[in-house]
Amino acid sequence: MRTFKTAALAALLMLGTAHVAQAQVARPILKIGVAKLPTGFDPGLNISNVGQRVNYSIFDELIRRAYWEGEKGDGAADAPSLATAWRNVSPLEWEVDIRTDVVFHNGAPMTAEDIAYSFSEERVWGESPIVAEGPTYFGNFTAVDVVDADTIKFTTEAPDPIFPKRFTTTMGKVVPKAYYTEVGVDEFNLHPIGTGPYKLEEFLPGEMIRLVSNDAYWGGLPPAQEVQYIEIPEEAARITGLLNGELDMITNVSPDQQSTLEASDAVTVYPAIIENSRVMTFNTLQAPIDNADLRRAMIYAVDREAIVEALWGGQSFVPHELDSPGHGADYQADRPQISYDPSEAKRLIEASGYKGEELVFRIHGGYYTNYEAMAEVMQQMWAAVGLNVKLDIRDGATLREGEYHMLAWSNGQQMADITHPMSNTYGPAAVRTRPDAKQFMWAAPARFHELVKLMETTLDHDQRIAYFNQALDIFEDEAPQMEMFQALEFYATRKGINWKPYSFWPMDIGPTNLSFSD
């Protein structure tokens, strides 16, 4: 078992307690132990949980979601950020006012040209944009123009009921046009420049990310002089580092360790329900899982409620397909869902013509807390109804190599609207339904895509909800995935750190959400 990756990293941690004394005279160094680090920082290319955790501090969105306004860090309102105001000036035109007192980490002023480029046809919404997933978020755009030094005009193909929310996602972050185009995408991904409260100082892939304070930050002086994200895959090592004072904060704590940490007078534990569900997606292009009866049988065969109770202490829940309490008043709470029914599973297996073929369930080892333990339980439940499932645990580099029938994945509700996670995971431009994408696994019916588009362009609220339910009918009949449980993230910090987790993956360690009292 590995503790820390290198001797140099271990030595770095041994210096960790020095920040306690520093706190009396200067801003401290914040050391965060994480299970995994991202491989880059470009916000358009690193939309994973580990990516958003870090790039939230390096970049700013044009419009920000006000997570902090919710009691549980789940506020859903749109708030000013690099944009100060926005207005719908005609059915197909929006004007956005931007700040003029912002500088990038290299000292260059942020201009209207930077905003226009960040959301340009070339970068996020054209036929072959730099950011491949950009059209999922900005595919309704037809033009982005600079009106003057502090105003941008966006033109859309159809009315856009969710225009402001598009910018509250990780895709809504602003990049510097001159530097981005000069160094190219690959270099920018490794050496990013943003406008956020912290700037990248050092990156040791698989070991550590070191950010330093952006003292010129427009939002106020960052509370830490330096932030270190240290990759420590073993949970026991992260916990030990926190309890010993070598770390200030840790992520990816499993529920069975919650009581241990809460028993310590030196630690505060923060449970947070995340608007991201753990799912198992079906590779519907691969026989015999190309049969919808067999896919539904696999869902009926799993007692998901029992799994949540056993592995998450009942603190999470089984979400509806592509629907979430994060949708607020639009949540379809009374919509019937598939529930545990072994008899129905057996009936559907027989109807599918399944002959006992081996079904390969591909899992990214160590990436999702408790997922491997959950998969072992599921394997037994499937065996009980006659399904022959093999667990194939891989690293990220080989996850999609070769043939497989099911894949461990997650659905992120990137914006607080019913279009997410439906549109960004299975919509017309999403990687799971786009034939040219390596993650392509479901050829969605044309009507499903039509309904998604209607949801994104219909202003009448009740009609949008009707389209949403029609799309869900198709999705549940096709069954391209199985929702497992709503992500429950446990963070822990040493006493004296005042911080609030949010209901999604960003870790806000900026001026308004982090302070130190020791």
Characterise this structure.
This protein has 518 residues and is of the alpha+beta class. 29% of the residues lie in helices and 22% in strands. The protein has helices spanning 7-14, 18-22, 49-58, 112-118, 121-125, 134-138, 163-166, 177-183, 185-190, 235-243, 258-262, 292-300, 304-312, 342-352, 371-384, 422-426, 446-457, 461-478, and strands at residues 29-34, 63-65, 78-80, 83-90, 93-98, 141-148, 151-156, 198-204, 208-213, 226-231, 249-250, 267-282, 359-364, 389-394, 406-412, 481-494, 497-499, 514-516. The strands form four sheets. The chain has a ten-stranded mixed β-sheet, sandwiched between helices. It is globular and about 65 Å long. Residues 1-25 have low confidence and may be disordered.
What fraction of the residues are assigned to beta strands by DSSP? 15-25%
Low-confidence stretches: 1-25
In the sheet with the most strands, the strands line up as 8-9-10-1-11-16-12-15-13-14
**Structural class of the helices, strands and pairings?**
alpha+beta
Shape: globular
What portion of residues is helical? 25-40%
Largest sheet descriptor: 10 strands, mixed
- Please give the oligomerization state of what you see: single chain
> What is the count of DSSP helices, taking H or I runs of 4+ residues?
18
Q: Which value, in Å, is the CA radius of gyration?
A: 23 Å
Q: What is the strand tally?
A: 18
On the 0 to 100 scale, the average pLDDT is: 93
Quote the distance from N terminus to C terminus. 34 Å
